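Reopening: C-alpha cells for the 1,3-dihydroxyacetonephosphate complex, inputs below.
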Amino acid sequence: MLHYKELGLVNSRDLFKAAVKGGYAIPAFNFNNLEQMQAIIGACVETKSPVILQVSKGARKYANQTLLQYLAKGAVEYAKELGYAIPIVLHLDHGDSFETCKSCIETGFSSVMIDGSHLSYDENVKVTRQVVEFAHQFDVTVEGELGVLAGIEDEVSAEHSSYTRPEEVEDFVKKTGVDSLAISIGTSHGAFKFKVKPGELPPPLRFDILEEVEKRIPGFPIVLHGASSVPQDIVAEINQYGGKMENAAGVPEDQLRKAAASAVCKINIDSDGRLAMTAAIRKVFIEKPGEFDPRNYLGPARDKLRELYKHKIINVLGSANRV
Ligand code: G3H
Ligand code: 13P
Ligand code: ZN
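Re-run output (same inputs, fresh job):
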C-alpha cells in the first residue's frame, strides 16, 4: 500500500469546501504524459490555483501505473521548485469497478470516481457505497455520478444522455456517503458535443436541474464532466494546418462560469487540451516539414496547453489566487 500522503498529495474534501463557499471551481485536467503534466502544474503554480490531476483508465494503461505514481510525486516537487506548493489531488476519472478504485487507492490516488451512471439506480448505489466504505478507511475522497452524459466516457459509450433526476440525489448521497456528485445537465464528452451548424449556438445547459439539485442537497459539492468549450479559433487552426474537424462544438465558457459560481466545484476539461496540443503540433509539421526532434513539436504543444489552462483558471473557473 502506498498512501497518497507519502507522495505529498491531498484529497479533495477541503478544496471543495472552499470552492463551494468561494463560488469557484477546481480545475480537473486529464493527463497522460509528461508534457501535459508540466503544462498543468506550470499554469496552476503561475496562477496560484489548486488542481486535480485526473487519470482515466485509458491513461493508466498508456502511462504505466508505476510511472504515474512517480509523475504525481514529481508534480508535487516540481510545483515547489517553480516557487509555490499548490495543493494537488491525484484522481481516478471514470472508475469502472470497485477493483479499479481499490487498486488506485492502494497505489497513491487521493480521490477516485466510481462511475455507476450506466447501471440501474440500485446497482449504482451498491457499488458506490462499496467504494466509499473502502476509500474512507484511507481518507480518500469519492465522486459518484447520477444521470448519463452522451459521448464516450472512457470505455463506456452512451449515444443518448439522460439528465440527472433531482428527486434521486438526496437519497443517493445519503445511502452512498459520497463526497461529491457528478450530474448530467447537458454537457457531454468529446469535441463534438452538439449537432450545430456553423454560427449556431448550442442548447443552453439545464440550470433549472442544477438549481433543483442544489435545493435538495444545499452546499454539497457538484461536478461537471464534459466541460470542454471546443474553442473555435483552435479548431480553425487545426483545419488550417491540414486537420479535418468539421462541426466540432462545446459548452460556451460563460455558461461554465455561471456554473462555477454555484455548487459546481469541480469542472473536468480534457478535449480542449487535446485540441490545443494538436493545433500546435500540426502547425510545426506544416511550417517545418523537416522537423523531427519531438522536443520541437511537443514543446510548442506544451506551451499552448499551458496558456489554455491559464485562461480556463483565470477566466472560466475562477480558481486563481485561491491557495
Ligand atoms: O471522460 C473521458 C476523458 O476525456 C478521458 O478520456 O478515456 O480517452 O483517456 P480517455
Ligand atoms: P471533455 O471531453 O469535455 O473535455 O470532458 C472531459 C471529462 O469529463 C473527463 O472526465
Ligand atoms: Zn468525464
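The longest helix spans residues 295-317. The radius of gyration is 19 Å. Marking as resolved unless the reporter disagrees.
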